[in-house]
Amino acid sequence: QVQLQESGPGLVKPSQTLSLTCTVSGGSITTNYYYWSWIRQPPGKGLEWMGAIAYSGSTYYSPSLKSRTSISRDTSKNQFTLQLSSVTPEDTAVYYCARDYSGSYYWDYWGQGTQVTVSS
Asked: Are 114 and 18 in contact (CB under 8 A)?
């Protein structure tokens, strides 16, 4: 059973960089052909895919967030990390990490989500 767990600060100040880590257990993030995504849901809005890192280490980003987003991984810890720069209150959301197969955007395993609030 694959499990994903998000971790990171719950409060970030405007203009700072948001950094979250997803720790994966029960499966390796380098296993063919899984993709590991970050997805967020602002209050009262739908889910927004932010980007993903593939089993190969290749990264993919939403065009609307690409200039501010970076996803990396630590294979020794079986973790992948989201960095979102220059945050504003509009980046307040519940942030999820999730897994899909072959970039299908059909996520079969999700973390529980973590609330991040951007506020001074």
From this structure: no
